[in-house]
Amino acid sequence: MLKLAARLAWRDWRGGELSLLFVALILAITSVTSISLFTHQVKQSMVAQGANLIAADLRLTGSQPISEDWRIKADNLSLQQAQVSQFQAMVFAQEGMQLASIKAVSDSYPLRGELSVGTAAFDLGTVIAQGPKRGEIWPDSRLLSSLNARLNDTIDVGQLGLKISHILITEPDQASGFSSFAPRAMMHLQDLAATAAVQTGSRIKHRWLLAGQADALTRLQASITPLLAPGQKWQSPNDGNANVAATLDKAEQFLLLAGSLAVVLAGVALSLSARRYSLRQAKHVALLKCLGLKPKQLRLLYFSQMILLALLALLISLPLAWGLYQALLWVVADYIQGASMVPPFEPFLLGAGTGTLCLLAFVLPPMLALAKVAPAEVLRQSSSQSKTNKTHLAIGFSAVIALVYWHSQSVLISGALIIGVAIILLLLALLASQLIKAGNKIRPYLSQGSKIGLANLARRKHQNSLQVAIFGLALMLLFSLISVRSFLINDWQQQLKQDTPNLFLFNIYQQQRQSLLDSMEEQGLTTQALTFFPIARARLTEPKLQSRRGSRELNLTWSPDLPIGNSISGGQWWNDGATGLEVSVESDYARDMGLSLGQELTFNIAGIEKKAVLSNLRDVDWSSMQPNFFFVFSEPLVEANSASYMASVYIAPADRPKLGPLLRQQPTISMLDVDQILQQVQRVVAQLSLAVESILVMVLGAGVLVLVASIQASIDERRHESAILRTLGASKALIRRILWVEYASLGFVAGLIAGLGAEALVAVLQQQLFQMPMQLHWPLWVLTPFTGMIIIGACGWWFNRTVVTAPPLRTLQQT
To answer: Please, is 341 exposed, middle or buried when counting C-beta atoms within 10 Å of its C-beta (0-12, 13-18, 19+)?
Structure first.
C-alpha cells in the first residue's frame, strides 16, 4: 500500500494537483518555524538585556550578609558569583567633602552587562572588564566635580585613603529611580573592612549576584528561599528596570501575537490548498473503487500518502526555516545578541506540528469522506460531498485554535483571534447578499466586462462569500498586526524624544531658583526646557491603611495644571475657582489602597495635618522619563520660601562637560543623571523595533500565501468559463476585465470588512493585552477597502494569467 501511495503521489505531482498543496505545506512549516525560532531568540535576547540591568541572571538583596553555606551551594551548582555591598558615607578630598553612595564590589563584578570608565568628568567612557582593584576608588562625575578632584588624587573613605584610578561613567545595575540622589563611587570589597565606615547599626545593603544555567538557578533559589531573613528578596532580570521591563513585556506580547497569526494564516492556506486537492481527487477515488479497492484500503492509501507528503515537506522546510532564521539574525546582528549554534527544539516541534496537524485535519477528512461515496455519484459530479464541508472546516480550524493556544499559551490572544474570525464571518454573511443586490442594480449601467464580472459574483454566491471571508480574514489579521506594530513603536518612541529630560536636580529652594538659572546661562546650558516641581514629604494618616506601602512617607507636589503625560480616569481636574484643598491620586494606588472619589484624606506634613478631598483619579505612565507623583494637590502645602523644588532638563552630549563647573557653583544642589537609563531604553527600543518589523515582513509573506492559495482554489472553474467565453468569441482583453472586476469587487468588500474587524481586534488587544488606552484608527477604515481592492485585484489578475492564455480546446478536453 505504501508503494501504491508513493506512485499515486508522484502521478499527482507530475499532473500539478499536488504541487500547490506541497508548496503551501512547505511555506506554512517554514514560516511558522522561522518566526518561532526568531521569536525565541528575541525573547532570549530580551532576557539577556534584562540580566544586564541587574548585572546578573539572579540577585539576592537584603541587609543581611550572605551565608557562607549558600555560597558553597552555588559553587556546587557551578554558578558564577559576585558580591556587592552598598552604603553611604562621607568622603574627603583635599579641596572638599561630600556624602556619597559607595558600592564595594568583588573581583568578578559584574556578571552581566558592562562597566564604562572615563578620564574626565561626564566623559563618554570606554568599556572595562571588571571593577576597581584593591587600593583604588572610582568616583562618578558628580562626586569628582563636587570634590574638585582629579585622576590620581586620593579620596578618604573613613580611615582609608584610596587612589582615583578611573572615573565611573556607567554601571549595569545603576538605580533607575529617584531612590539614590547622592553621588556614587565604587571600590573593592576587600577594602571595606579597612575603612571602618560600616559599624554595627550602619545602614548597608548586600547584594549576591548569580549567573549560570536556568535550572541550577531555580534549584538554588528553591533551596534558599525558606531560609531568607526578613527584608531579603530575590530579583530577576524583569525587576531590574521598570522602564525597560514594560517595553520588553509589550514586545514579548507582540511576538506571541505575530507567531499566533502566522499559525492561523498557515492553517488557512493549507485549508484552501487541501480543499482543491481533495475535490480533484474525487474521480481518482471513484476509479480506484471501481477497480476493487475497499473504503478501508482507500483510507489507508491516502493516509500513507499524507504521511509521505508531510515527511518530505519536513525534510525540506526545517532546514530552510533554519537558514531563513540565520539570515534574519545576520540582518539584525547589531541589535540581537548572538544565538547559540544548538537550535532550540520547541520551534521545530511547533512548525512540524502545525504543518502535519493542519494537513491531517484539513486534507484527510474530505478524503476519508470520499471513500464512503458511491462511485456513480462521484462520476456524475454529485454535490453530496459538499454536505460535510462545514464539519471538515470545523475539524481543521479546531486544530488551528489548538495550535494557536499551544504557541501563545495565552487565553486572551487565542480568544481575541477566535472572536475576530467570528465577527468577520458574521459580517460577511450579512454583506454577501447586499453586494449581489447592489451589483444587480448597477449592472445595466456598466460596460460588458463589468456586467459579466458582477454576474459571476451573483452566480457563485456561496463560493464567492467563502472567498471574501478568506480574503477578509487574511487582510484583517495583517492590518491588525500592522496597527499593533505602529502603536507599539510609537509608544516606545515617545520615551526617546530628543528633549526627554536626562538630568534631575534636587534640593533647590525658592531663593536658589534664579541663581541656578544664572549659573546655567553662564555655562551656556539651555534653560528653556527647565521645569520646576515643588516637593514636600508627607504621610497619609487618615484613613488608616494596613498596607506598609500606604503608611510610608511619600514625595508630594501641587500644581494648577494636569501634569504632562497624565490623564484623568475619574472625577474632574480642579479649576481656578475651586475652594478648599483637593488632591488627585494615581488610579492604581487608589485602587490598591481602597481610596474613592469624594473621600476626605488627612496628611501629616512636617507635623502639621492637612485635610484634602479626593476629587479625581489619574492614569500615570510610569515607564516615561518624566517626574511622576502618587499625590498632586490643588494648593501649596508649605510656604513658598520653605518649599524644596526639583527640576528636570535635557542636557545634550556636547554640553555634559559643563555640568562639573555648574555643580561647583551650586554645591548644595543634588543631581541625578539618568542618561544611562535612556541609553538602555534606546538600545532596547532599536532592537525590538527592528525585530517587530522583521516579524511583520515574515507574517506578511504568510498572508500572501493565503491569497495565492485562495485564488488557486478556484482557478479550474475560471479556466473552464474562460474557454467557453473565448469559444463564443470573447477577446482576451474582455476576459481580463472580467477577472479584474470580479477580484477587485471581492477585494473591496473584503477590505471594508477587514478594516472594521481589525479595528475591533486591535481595540481588544490595546486595552487587554498591552494595557494601553484604546485609539480609533480612522485611516484604517478608509484605506483598507481600496488596499484590498488593489491587492486582491492585482493578485487575482496575475495568478489567473493562464486562464486567459490557455488554448480553449485543450482546456475543454481536460475538463
So the answer is: exposed
Per-residue pLDDT at 384? 40
- Residue 80 pairs with which residues in a beta bridge? 211
Helices (H), 638-674: 659-665
Q: Give the integer Cα–Cα distance in Å for 460 and 721.
A: 12
d(CA 607, CA 493): 43
Fill in the amino acid letter for 439.
Answer: G
Kind plus residue range of the DSSP H or E element containing 75: helix 68-76
Axis crossing angle, helix 295-331 with helix 282-290, rounded to the nearest 10: 150
Whether 796 contacts 740, CB under 8 Å: yes
CB count, 10 Å around CB of 237? 23
Selected residue with higher pLDDT from 811 and 227: 227
**Local structure of 403: helix, strand or coil:** helix
Q: What is the pLDDT of residue 804?
A: 74
Task: Write down the pTM of the prediction.
Answer: 0.60
- Give the 3-state secondary structure of 302-334: HHHHHHHHHHHHHHHHHHHHHHHHHHHHHHCCC
Closest by CA to 25, choosing from 318, 229, 243, 249, is 318
Rounded to 10 deg, the angle between the 461-494 and 675-713 helix axes is 170
Cβ atoms of 357 and 405 within 8 Å: the answer is no
**Is residue 800 packed enough to be buried (19+ CB in 10 Å), middle (13-18) or exposed (0-12)?**
buried
Q: Is the pLDDT reported for residue 521 higher than 80?
A: yes
pLDDT > 70 in the chain, percent: 70
Alpha-carbon distance of 441 to 437, in angstroms, equals: 6
Predicted local confidence at residue 386, as pLDDT: 43
Angle, alpha carbons 362-367-373 (nearest 5°): 140
Helix 19-54 / helix 345-362 crossing angle, nearest 10 deg: 150
- Work out the average pLDDT over 486-492: 61
User: Cell 532570549, residue?
Assistant: 44
Q: Name which of 80, 134, 133 is nearest 111 in CA terms.
A: 80
C-alpha to C-alpha distance for 471 and 750, rounded to whole angstroms: 6
* DSSP string across 257-284: HHHHHHHHHHHHHHHHHHHHHHHHTHHH
Give the whole-angstrom CA distance, residue 46 versus residue 683.
Answer: 11
d(CA 705, CA 697) in angstroms, rounded, equals 13
Distances (CA, A) of 93 to 87, 160, 185, 291: 19, 12, 13, 102
- Amino acid identity of residue 722, one-letter, is S
Query: What's the half-sphere exposure (Cβ side, CA atoms, 13 Å) at 275?
Result: 25
pLDDT of residue 177: 46
The better pLDDT of the pair 524, 251 is held by 524
Residue 537 grid coordinates: 514629604
Residue 132 is predicted with a pLDDT of 94
The average confidence (pLDDT) of the chain is: 77
> For the segment 399-415, what is each residue's pLDDT rounded down to a tens digit?
777 777 776 777 777 77
Residues sharing a CB contact under 8 Å with residue 432, sequence separation 6 or more, in sequence order = 461, 464, 465, 468
Least confident of 159-173, 295-309, 607-621: 295-309
